[in-house]
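Reading group handout, session on sequence-to-structure problems. Before we discuss, look at one worked example. The prompt was deliberately terse, the way you'd type it at a terminal:

> structure Acyl-CoA synthetase (AMP-forming)/AMP-acid ligase II

The input record follows.
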Amino acid sequence: MDWLIERFGSAPERIAFIHEGREVSYGAVVATVASFRERVKAANVARGETVVVLGDYSPEVFCTMLALAQEGAIVIPLTRQSVIEESVALGVSGCDWYMEFDAAGRDFTLTHRGLATDNALLNEFRPRGTPGLVLFSSGSTGKPKGILHDFNQVAEKFRKQRAPVVAIPFLMIDHFGGINTILAITASLGTVVTVADRSVADICGAIARYKVELLPATPSFLTLLMASGLHTQYDLSSLKRITYGTEVMPQSTLDRVRAAFPGVNLLQTYGLSEVGVLRSQSRDDGSLWVRVGGEGFQTKIVNGVLWIKSEYAMVGYLNAPSEFDAEGWFNTQDQVEVDGDYFRILGRVTDLINVGGQKVYPAEVESVILELDNVQDVAVFGEKHNLLGQIVVAKIVLDAPEPVESVKKRVRQACLAQLASFKVPAKVVLAEGVLHSARQKKIRRE
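And the output record:
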């Protein structure tokens, strides 16, 4: 990490963070990393020990992670909104030290836990002498997996400096996409703008107040943004680029975003915790066709599924067998269509709905339903059926109350007009609240 700290020191006056209105320069970041590193040393945190860091985005949380990395610790970032129970996470990774930040994210308490785990992968990794980074999958399709990365290798991708931007790190710090975003912003000497929460109103307010240029978001968030209409109530003219990823983007949402932000570059991103985030290029702003790869990555399609080979791949799972083949290729489980160098993501194999042997991709159905009046959001998933195997279910959040029979009739008419009959929802459920997780990803289940 030394090269990164040296880069920060080359521009001490530049603003690295605007954290809830508080400006922190790169010079202050360097000083804080050094100060926290001394505290870590004084506590006798040893190289290769596991350290849980409980907090969310703040300059100090970031500085602590860098200080721990410089000391060769294995960093386990968790937030109070983590999608995995803390006890489950620590049962997998162990916890030699527990670092908890206060509500303001400015200072921490460090306690020795001594929670050991005889993990074969960690035992094999420690002799390298390099810092580690452990992240956890959401566990939405089974038991959460602990994913071990070489922290130096994760950061190495950003050694080549790019143009600085003012950006909001939308994904959480316990998510690979969140780590990737904050490293990308700071390695380019840009400015990280944090918000108290990731509500549509707070995000829009921060963009307007601090002239944010880049918004990395999820399709679920952009769907809510368009439904709320708040983009018309705030001055978002500073935005130059909106990136989206982590889940399939409904075409109807993309069309609405493109219409609402005609001068903004829309870019689909692609990455997984296991292989890292690839460079991407959308065919155009209104297209879901994307080309991915870049230095350090190779891609191939096998039976309609995307496989990736990466120089930035994880070391391995802490609690599961490796899913890389003998040649280092990883099955993403993402079904895709191919057109030359471009592909279009249809959905996860695990999200696929099988109706009497016919494939239904949830995002395709959701895109049609999102075009209807009075629909704020929708999640489409499969439900077991004795005859057909599965039926299509649509869980819908409305803007205003409406009888379920009326909604079902409108959904059926719209879907029959645009989709094959087996893709039409057989069941419509009205719901309240949100249909996404704390990581702003769609929850497709009952």
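Points for discussion. First: DSSP finds twelve helices and 26 strands in the chain. Second: The longest helix spans residues 26-42.
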